[in-house]
Amino acid sequence: MEQPPTGGGAGARVLVVDDDPTVAEIVTGYLDRAGYVVDRAGDGPDALARAAAHRPDLVVLDLMLPGMDGLEVCRRMRGQGPVPVIMLTARGDEDDRILGLEVGADDYVTKPFSPRELVLRVGSVLRRVRPVADPSGDGSGSGVLRAAGLSVDPEARTAFKNGVELALTVREFDLLAFFLAHPGRAFAREELMRDVWGWDFGDLSTVTVHVRRLRGKVEDDPARPRLIRTVWGVGYRFDPASTEEA
Predict the structure, then answer these.
(1) pLDDT greater at residue 81 or residue 234
(2) Which ranges does the entry annotate as DNA-binding region (predicted)?
Protein backbone atom coordinates (compact mmCIF):
# COMPACT_ATOMS: atom_id res chain seq x y z
CA MET A 1 0.00 0.00 0.00
CA GLU A 2 1.38 3.39 -0.95
CA GLN A 3 2.27 5.68 1.92
CA PRO A 4 0.75 9.17 2.15
CA PRO A 5 2.99 12.21 2.28
CA THR A 6 3.35 13.37 5.86
CA GLY A 7 3.62 16.88 7.26
CA GLY A 8 3.40 20.01 5.15
CA GLY A 9 -0.28 20.61 5.76
CA ALA A 10 0.45 23.22 8.40
CA GLY A 11 -3.17 23.11 9.57
CA ALA A 12 -4.69 24.27 6.27
CA ARG A 13 -8.40 23.42 6.08
CA VAL A 14 -9.47 21.20 3.16
CA LEU A 15 -13.10 20.42 2.34
CA VAL A 16 -13.57 17.03 0.62
CA VAL A 17 -16.84 16.76 -1.32
CA ASP A 18 -17.69 13.30 -2.67
CA ASP A 19 -20.85 11.20 -2.42
CA ASP A 20 -18.82 7.96 -2.43
CA PRO A 21 -18.07 7.34 1.26
CA THR A 22 -15.15 5.01 0.46
CA VAL A 23 -13.40 7.59 -1.72
CA ALA A 24 -14.11 10.35 0.78
CA GLU A 25 -12.77 8.28 3.67
CA ILE A 26 -9.54 7.37 1.85
CA VAL A 27 -8.89 10.94 0.70
CA THR A 28 -9.67 12.30 4.15
CA GLY A 29 -7.29 9.82 5.77
CA TYR A 30 -4.41 10.73 3.47
CA LEU A 31 -4.97 14.47 3.91
CA ASP A 32 -5.27 14.10 7.68
CA ARG A 33 -1.98 12.22 7.90
CA ALA A 34 -0.36 14.94 5.76
CA GLY A 35 -1.27 17.52 8.41
CA TYR A 36 -4.44 19.07 6.99
CA VAL A 37 -7.64 19.85 8.87
CA VAL A 38 -10.25 18.00 6.83
CA ASP A 39 -14.00 18.51 6.59
CA ARG A 40 -16.29 16.24 4.56
CA ALA A 41 -19.52 16.71 2.64
CA GLY A 42 -21.53 14.18 0.62
CA ASP A 43 -23.52 16.53 -1.59
CA GLY A 44 -23.64 20.08 -2.93
CA PRO A 45 -25.93 21.76 -0.36
CA ASP A 46 -23.96 20.23 2.51
CA ALA A 47 -20.69 21.39 0.91
CA LEU A 48 -21.96 24.96 0.55
CA ALA A 49 -23.19 25.01 4.14
CA ARG A 50 -19.90 23.70 5.50
CA ALA A 51 -17.91 26.15 3.38
CA ALA A 52 -20.04 29.03 4.68
CA ALA A 53 -19.59 27.90 8.29
CA HIS A 54 -15.82 27.30 8.06
CA ARG A 55 -14.20 28.80 4.96
CA PRO A 56 -11.80 26.17 3.57
CA ASP A 57 -8.33 26.94 2.25
CA LEU A 58 -8.96 24.47 -0.59
CA VAL A 59 -11.80 22.24 -1.83
CA VAL A 60 -11.46 18.75 -3.33
CA LEU A 61 -14.70 18.52 -5.30
CA ASP A 62 -16.21 15.55 -7.13
CA LEU A 63 -17.81 16.56 -10.42
CA MET A 64 -20.58 13.95 -10.31
CA LEU A 65 -22.65 14.73 -7.24
CA PRO A 66 -26.34 13.90 -6.67
CA GLY A 67 -28.76 16.77 -7.17
CA MET A 68 -26.43 19.75 -7.46
CA ASP A 69 -23.39 18.77 -9.53
CA GLY A 70 -19.82 19.83 -8.87
CA LEU A 71 -19.90 22.53 -11.54
CA GLU A 72 -22.75 24.36 -9.78
CA VAL A 73 -21.11 23.89 -6.39
CA CYS A 74 -17.89 25.38 -7.78
CA ARG A 75 -19.77 28.36 -9.27
CA ARG A 76 -21.54 29.09 -6.00
CA MET A 77 -18.43 28.71 -3.87
CA ARG A 78 -16.46 31.05 -6.08
CA GLY A 79 -19.39 33.46 -5.94
CA GLN A 80 -18.82 33.68 -2.17
CA GLY A 81 -15.13 34.50 -2.60
CA PRO A 82 -11.92 33.05 -4.02
CA VAL A 83 -11.08 29.51 -2.97
CA PRO A 84 -8.81 27.02 -4.75
CA VAL A 85 -10.66 23.99 -6.14
CA ILE A 86 -9.28 20.64 -7.28
CA MET A 87 -11.97 18.79 -9.20
CA LEU A 88 -12.31 15.00 -9.36
CA THR A 89 -13.52 13.78 -12.75
CA ALA A 90 -14.13 10.45 -14.45
CA ARG A 91 -11.41 9.33 -16.85
CA GLY A 92 -12.09 10.35 -20.44
CA ASP A 93 -14.69 13.04 -19.68
CA GLU A 94 -12.69 15.80 -21.39
CA ASP A 95 -15.71 18.05 -21.89
CA ASP A 96 -16.52 17.88 -18.19
CA ARG A 97 -12.93 18.68 -17.24
CA ILE A 98 -12.97 21.72 -19.53
CA LEU A 99 -16.26 22.87 -18.00
CA GLY A 100 -14.72 22.50 -14.55
CA LEU A 101 -11.82 24.71 -15.55
CA GLU A 102 -14.21 27.21 -17.12
CA VAL A 103 -16.10 27.71 -13.86
CA GLY A 104 -12.90 28.29 -11.92
CA ALA A 105 -11.37 24.95 -10.87
CA ASP A 106 -7.61 25.31 -10.44
CA ASP A 107 -6.70 21.70 -11.08
CA TYR A 108 -8.31 18.33 -11.71
CA VAL A 109 -7.52 14.69 -10.99
CA THR A 110 -9.11 11.86 -12.97
CA LYS A 111 -10.63 8.79 -11.33
CA PRO A 112 -9.30 6.29 -10.50
CA PHE A 113 -6.49 8.31 -8.96
CA SER A 114 -3.62 7.87 -6.55
CA PRO A 115 -4.52 9.42 -3.17
CA ARG A 116 -0.86 10.25 -2.70
CA GLU A 117 -0.82 12.18 -5.98
CA LEU A 118 -3.93 14.07 -4.89
CA VAL A 119 -2.25 15.08 -1.62
CA LEU A 120 0.77 16.31 -3.58
CA ARG A 121 -1.53 18.32 -5.88
CA VAL A 122 -3.23 19.86 -2.83
CA GLY A 123 0.15 20.89 -1.43
CA SER A 124 1.25 22.33 -4.77
CA VAL A 125 -1.86 24.50 -5.14
CA LEU A 126 -1.74 25.72 -1.55
CA ARG A 127 1.93 26.66 -1.78
CA ARG A 128 1.10 28.86 -4.75
CA VAL A 129 -1.90 30.55 -3.18
CA ARG A 130 -0.60 31.27 0.34
CA PRO A 131 -0.08 35.07 0.40
CA VAL A 132 2.79 37.05 1.82
CA ALA A 133 1.72 40.41 3.23
CA ASP A 134 2.39 43.48 1.07
CA PRO A 135 2.63 46.53 3.36
CA SER A 136 1.56 48.90 0.58
CA GLY A 137 -1.61 46.94 -0.06
CA ASP A 138 -1.61 47.91 -3.74
CA GLY A 139 0.86 45.51 -5.29
CA SER A 140 3.61 48.11 -5.45
CA GLY A 141 6.19 46.20 -3.41
CA SER A 142 9.59 45.07 -4.62
CA GLY A 143 9.72 42.36 -7.27
CA VAL A 144 6.46 43.47 -8.85
CA LEU A 145 6.08 42.70 -12.57
CA ARG A 146 4.55 45.53 -14.63
CA ALA A 147 3.51 45.97 -18.26
CA ALA A 148 0.63 47.43 -20.27
CA GLY A 149 -1.26 48.67 -17.20
CA LEU A 150 -0.88 45.33 -15.42
CA SER A 151 1.03 44.78 -12.19
CA VAL A 152 1.62 41.42 -10.53
CA ASP A 153 3.25 40.84 -7.16
CA PRO A 154 4.30 37.16 -7.05
CA GLU A 155 4.98 37.24 -3.30
CA ALA A 156 1.77 38.95 -2.20
CA ARG A 157 -0.18 37.02 -4.86
CA THR A 158 -1.94 40.19 -6.02
CA ALA A 159 -2.62 41.38 -9.54
CA PHE A 160 -3.98 44.73 -10.76
CA LYS A 161 -5.15 46.15 -14.06
CA ASN A 162 -5.06 49.95 -14.20
CA GLY A 163 -5.12 50.05 -10.40
CA VAL A 164 -8.11 47.70 -10.06
CA GLU A 165 -7.42 44.35 -8.40
CA LEU A 166 -8.09 41.29 -10.55
CA ALA A 167 -9.95 38.26 -9.22
CA LEU A 168 -7.77 35.42 -10.53
CA THR A 169 -7.69 31.73 -9.76
CA VAL A 170 -4.39 30.18 -8.67
CA ARG A 171 -3.53 28.99 -12.17
CA GLU A 172 -4.66 32.22 -13.85
CA PHE A 173 -2.38 34.17 -11.52
CA ASP A 174 0.56 31.87 -12.20
CA LEU A 175 -0.01 32.12 -15.95
CA LEU A 176 -0.21 35.93 -15.91
CA ALA A 177 2.92 36.22 -13.76
CA PHE A 178 4.78 33.91 -16.15
CA PHE A 179 3.72 35.94 -19.19
CA LEU A 180 4.77 39.22 -17.58
CA ALA A 181 8.14 37.72 -16.65
CA HIS A 182 8.73 36.66 -20.29
CA PRO A 183 7.36 39.41 -22.56
CA GLY A 184 7.69 39.00 -26.31
CA ARG A 185 8.56 35.30 -26.23
CA ALA A 186 6.31 32.66 -27.79
CA PHE A 187 5.64 29.56 -25.72
CA ALA A 188 4.14 26.27 -26.83
CA ARG A 189 1.31 24.91 -24.72
CA GLU A 190 3.59 22.04 -23.70
CA GLU A 191 6.12 24.57 -22.37
CA LEU A 192 3.45 26.46 -20.43
CA MET A 193 2.16 23.23 -18.92
CA ARG A 194 5.68 22.33 -17.80
CA ASP A 195 6.82 25.78 -16.62
CA VAL A 196 3.55 27.08 -15.12
CA TRP A 197 1.74 23.92 -14.03
CA GLY A 198 4.86 21.90 -13.29
CA TRP A 199 3.51 18.97 -15.31
CA ASP A 200 5.61 17.02 -17.81
CA PHE A 201 2.45 15.61 -19.40
CA GLY A 202 -1.27 16.28 -19.31
CA ASP A 203 -4.30 17.53 -21.21
CA LEU A 204 -3.18 20.56 -23.23
CA SER A 205 -6.75 21.87 -23.31
CA THR A 206 -6.08 22.89 -19.70
CA VAL A 207 -3.71 25.57 -21.00
CA THR A 208 -6.15 26.67 -23.72
CA VAL A 209 -8.99 27.11 -21.24
CA HIS A 210 -6.87 29.08 -18.78
CA VAL A 211 -5.56 31.39 -21.50
CA ARG A 212 -9.14 32.06 -22.59
CA ARG A 213 -10.24 32.79 -19.02
CA LEU A 214 -7.24 35.03 -18.41
CA ARG A 215 -7.91 36.99 -21.60
CA GLY A 216 -11.41 37.62 -20.31
CA LYS A 217 -9.93 39.39 -17.29
CA VAL A 218 -6.95 41.32 -18.70
CA GLU A 219 -7.90 42.17 -22.29
CA ASP A 220 -9.97 45.23 -23.17
CA ASP A 221 -11.64 43.13 -25.87
CA PRO A 222 -11.17 39.41 -25.19
CA ALA A 223 -12.54 38.56 -28.63
CA ARG A 224 -9.65 40.52 -30.15
CA PRO A 225 -6.77 39.99 -27.72
CA ARG A 226 -3.84 42.38 -27.99
CA LEU A 227 -1.83 41.32 -24.93
CA ILE A 228 -1.93 37.52 -25.00
CA ARG A 229 -1.48 36.71 -28.67
CA THR A 230 -2.02 33.38 -30.35
CA VAL A 231 1.07 32.37 -32.33
CA TRP A 232 -0.30 29.94 -34.90
CA GLY A 233 1.53 26.65 -34.98
CA VAL A 234 3.38 27.49 -31.75
CA GLY A 235 1.26 28.64 -28.83
CA TYR A 236 0.98 32.03 -27.10
CA ARG A 237 3.01 35.21 -26.64
CA PHE A 238 2.58 38.09 -24.19
CA ASP A 239 2.97 41.26 -26.26
CA PRO A 240 2.73 44.43 -24.13
CA ALA A 241 4.22 46.54 -26.94
CA SER A 242 1.04 46.13 -28.98
CA THR A 243 -0.94 48.30 -26.54
CA GLU A 244 1.72 51.00 -26.61
CA GLU A 245 1.45 51.16 -30.39
CA ALA A 246 -2.36 51.44 -30.32
Answers:
(1) 234
(2) 142-240
